[in-house]
Structures are given as C-alpha cells and as structure tokens.
Amino acid sequence: MAFLAWRSGPARYGAGLIALLPATLLYMVHCDRGRLKAAAARRFLAGMTRAELIAACDNFANSRLGRRLIRPDAEQCWTSWRERGAELVIVTASPEEVVAPFARQLGADRLIGTLLEFDADDRVSGGFASANCRGPEKVARLKAVYGENLRLAAAYGDTSGDKELLGLADAPGYRVFTQRRG
Q1: Which pLDDT does position 142 carry in this prediction?
Q2: Beta strands 110-114; 152-157: pairing state
Q3: Helix (H/G/I), strand (E/B), else coil: 151
Q4: Cα–Cα distance between 107 and 89 in angstroms, integer?
Q5: In terms of Cα–Cα distance, which of 75, 39, 56 is closest to 177?
Q6: Chosen CATH of 2-174 out of 3.30.390.10, 3.40.50.1000, 1.20.1250.20, 3.80.30.20
Q7: Is the CB of residue 129 less than 8 Å from the CB of residue 116?
Q8: Can you tell me the distance from the alpha carbon of 29 to that of 93, in angstroms, rounded to the nearest whole number?
C-alpha cells in the first residue's frame, strides 16, 4: 500500500481508496484478501507496462519513503545471517515486482511473492498469475522450491499471514524488529 500511495499521490490515492469501498465491503463477506488485493491492483496498476511498473518500483525503493521501510534492526539481523552463510529468502504477500528492488538491495538469494498477471501486451491486467502468497500459500510456495521436508533455521514476520511460515522455523520471530529510520 505504501508503494501505491507513493506512486499515486495523495489525491489519486484517496480517490482510489474511495473507489475500492465496494471491494472492501465485499471483503467483509468473503474474507479473501487476495480478491481485495487484486481489486487494488486493478484500480492502481492496471494498464501499466511491465517496464513502467519495474521503473516505478525501483524509483520507490530508492525514494526517501522506500528507504525508510527497511528497519535497521531487521537489516542487522539479515546481515548477521548472511555472515553465517545462510540462504536468505524473502517470502511476501506483496507483488514480486514491488519487493524486487528491496530484495536486490539486501542481496536476497531468492524472492517469493504474489505474481501479478500481465496481458498479451505485457501490461498489468489487474489480476494475479498466482495465489496470494499469504498464510499457508507461503509454506506451499517454499516447499515447492525447497521440498516437502523443509525446515527453516529462522523466519521473521509481522502479520497474521506469517503464522504458518513461522511454524516451520527453529527460531521464529514475530514483530521482533522495532527500530525505525529517521
């Protein structure tokens, strides 16, 4: 949502949120975050070319707001695991294109996220090409890459959608990173 707000600007973002009210009300009935997220992608991203989206995501990651999103204590933990030779994977419900610049900056070995759907002209359709990578889907996607007997040395999360992922870790951390950049 921070990316969408940054890219849209206050007026367009506010208008977009108002336009999403019906989808938000429907969410209270079906409780499907993926459907709500797809509605937001349609509202804010549909029609963008892949190249435009990637450029916007790169600009966001390098913006003042984008740089503030990575918590210093999380970055220190990441660096510590890197120094120990761990394979570092980001598993996120966010679209991969949005998180990819951050993953590159951090030197992630792999990024697993929600996949946006692109049409024949390589424009964002507003749908998803994968299931919303949240909750049990995070575990399923990891196991698809690393095998059914996957066990994690550590995992960190900050939403209810991380519960299943944290259950795979010898050292789970829920909302352990609290530092903010100034």
Answers
A1: 97
A2: unpaired
A3: coil
A4: 10
A5: 75
A6: 3.40.50.1000
A7: yes
A8: 21
- CA 48 distance to own-chain centroid: 18
Distance CA 125, CA 157 (A): 29
120, 105, 28, 116: which is closest to 69 by C-alpha? 105
pTM above 0.85, yes or no: yes
Identify the CA nearest to 124 among candidates 115, 113, 136.
Answer: 115
Q: Is the pLDDT of residue 21 over 80?
A: yes
Helices 50-61 + 96-106 axis angle, to 10: 50
pLDDT reading at 153 higher than 90: yes
pLDDT average, residue stretch 139-154: 96
Rounded to a whole number of angstroms, the CA Rg of the chain reads: 17
Q: Which amino acid, one-letter code, is at 61?
A: A
Retrieve residue 104's tokens.
């590159």
Tokens of 39: 């509605």
With H, G, I as helix, E, B as strand and everything else as coil, classify residue 53: helix
Domain ranges of the chain: 2-174
Counted residue by residue, the chain has a size of 182
List the beta bridge partners of residue 156: 173
d(CA 36, CA 167): 26
